[in-house]
Amino acid sequence: MTKRVSAYKIPRVWRVLTSFPRMKNGKIDKATIYSYFAEKEGRHMISFEPITADTMYIVSEIINSNEAYNVLENGKKERGEEELLKNT
To answer: Residue 47 has what pLDDT?
Structure first.
């Protein structure tokens, strides 16, 4: 991805939300989302779960869902588990 996108634009951390926090007017509350990544009392408010077979399956399904993009980005249709674990 760094071949086509500047490194600072690539997310370093992902957080899965079941829904976006919203303000009273219905807009997405960005301040709350940013707070998920902020430090509080010297500890990060986000936590990381160990990679399991289930989470790896989900990651693989998402990343390999667009063959044309994978060919463009990586020169092959699918990315294997070893390649996906390389940056963890």
So the answer is: 58
pLDDT digits (tens, 9 = 90+) for 63-73: 888 888 888 87
> Which H, E and C letters describe the chain, residue by residue?
CCCCCCHHHCCCCCCCCCCCCECCCCCECHHHHHHCCCEECCEECCCCCCCCHHHHHHHHHHHCCCHHHHHHHHCCCCCCHHHHHCCC
Chain centre to alpha carbon of residue 55: 12
Whole-prediction pTM value?
0.39
Here the tokens at position 79 are: 């990315």
Q: Which residues, 6+ apart, have CB-to-CB distance to 77 below 8 Å?
A: 64, 67, 70, 71
